[in-house]
Amino acid sequence: xxxxxxxxxxxxxxxxxxxxxxxxxxxxxxxxxxxxxxxxxxxxxxxxxxxxxxxxxxxxxxxxxxxxxxxxxxxxxxxxxxxxxxxxxxxxxxxxxxxxxxxxxxxxxxxxxxxxxxxxxxxxxxxxxxxxxxxxxxxxxxxxxxxxxxxxxxxxxxxxxxxxxxxxxxxxxxxxxxxxxxxxxxxxxxxxxxxxxxxxxxxxxxxxxxxxxxxxxxxxxxxxxxxxxxxxxxxxxxxxxxxxxxxxxxxxxxxxxxxxxxxxxxxxxxxxxxxxxxxxxxxxxxxxxxxxxxxxxxxxxxxxxxxxxxxxxxxxxxxxxxxxxxxxxxxxxxxxxxxxxxxxxxxxxxxxxxxxxxxxxxxxxxxxxxxxxxxxxxxxxxxxxxxxxxxxxxxxxxxxxxxxxxxxxxxxxx
Amino acid sequence: xxxxxxxxxxxxxxxxxxxxxxxxxxxxxxxxxxxxxxxxxxxxxxxxxxxxxxxxxxxxxxxxxxxxxxxxxxxxxxxxxxxxxxxxxxxxxxxxxxxxxxxxxxxxxxxxxxxxxxxxxxxxxxxxxxx
Lengths: 414, 131
Ligand SMILES: Cc1ncc(COP(=O)(O)O)c(C=O)c1O
Hints:
The complex is a heterodimer.
Chain A: E1 16-17, H1 28-34, H2 51-71, E2 78-81, H3 84-98, E3 105-109, H4 114-125, E4 129-133, H5 143-149, E5 154-158, H6 172-182, E6 185-189, E7 208-212, E8 223-227, H7 255-293, E9 297-299, E10 310-315, H8 320-326, E11 330-331, E12 333-334, H9 347-351, H10 356-359, E13 362-366, H11 373-392, H12 395-401
Parallel strand pairs in A: 1-11, 3-4, 3-5, 5-6, 6-7
Antiparallel strand pairs in A: 2-8, 7-8, 9-10, 10-13, 12-13
Helix pairs in contact in A: 1-7, 2-7, 3-4, 7-11
Chain B: H1 5-12, E1 27-34, E2 39-47, E3 53-61, H2 64-77, H3 82-86, H4 90-97, H5 104-124
Antiparallel strand pairs in B: 1-2, 2-3
Helix pairs in contact in B: 1-2, 2-5, 4-5
The complex binds pyridoxal-5'-phosphate.
Pyridoxal-5'-phosphate binds at residues 83-85, 113, 115, 160, 164, 189, 191-192, 212, 223 of chain A.
């Protein structure tokens, strides 16, 4: 390997990156695999008449096999897109529009990513009906409730495998079995799950799966959609044109990005087991380290059914955005939406039944391939110091120490 | 979001953090905001026999701008009469801290905190001391 691993030799003025659910750095091995396809092997993979086209096509088809191999699919079932947002749009709008004469209902969860929820909202304006199922306080869906929501008119059930904010992993195989039993398609947004937890489209009865490159150490601007061929799922294309990707997604494929996604899948597959164990260990170290230093901290979302590299913690009596400012040597994100125009905290945390005040105190800590034990130890110190300092500034912390229940106070909501 | 140097300075070195004795008749306490909205400010003033604010303390649950706004007003109210302190406007706070539009509510809350502390003091000590 020619270049250093990201995260190593971090310059002093760069914060420690603990936001791996937002995005991941490209693995240097991925970059290396991509490079020739920017320069000498620049051909259009759809050019059938010369070497340039053929070598690009070969690279694309190899990548298709690599993506398929990671999820137990046939390469013909993979179409390349610009990312999980496009894959989710294509899957949901594509199925809804194709089957609209017989089916007009979609089942999803209130905690899905905005690109699924917003797509569903859009479909509602076209006359489709959408059931947004609640989740339990641990973030998991109640399977009986999901099954009960399916009707004769249901075209597709869409449930993400691993959550971007709280990391919880839904019972995908069980949901797949329910969908198959009822003859409805099962779409799963696996942007966060692919390459992190084992997935098999056949064992799990998945009909459509969305994949993103930049969440798995591949490049940004590339993703894939798995579309089952047997029994066949049909889609109405979102993007019309030259009929590439079996007519489901026209446009010249971005060969270097496709190659990068393929390489990212190869690496994820080879390293998943060891990496998963390593990250679970680091996550436990982080959580135990924080718990040893700080009382009144709460993990949001189920800790057992969870991505190895995710923690979402409420630090009671300390506001999340203020806390992020205090941990300026860490790159993390908060469930407090104080930065946005609305003062509403995360809809995901609210869906778990968290009080708005607890939702305002959360941080998401995302660990990944380049996170080291030393970085975790640094994060523990840094967060513990910031929380302790901010609690010494917090009137709510004082009330807590005096035994006053802050819910008993008549607050003037503004 | 990037913060102004003034906000960062108040956030990292907050002035007048702490509490005054709420039972003291010379102390007025303002508690404004709500945990559910992501910010709560507690501002206390101690008023001298001459009607001058001689001490001020705060504690705030909130973002950096909320902490800075309340820290700043503890500096501003000290040495002022109650009427002078009541004239501090959120726009002055916002300007001094260079708050972006989404953070204006922090300065509004700081102004409310001053007014609430003054009202509490006046409630406890209805007889304004001789000027
Ligand atoms: C669960 C989930 N779905 C979809 C997306 C969107 O992915 P992309 O950035 O590839 O469009 C993301 C990333 O933000 C995600 O975490």
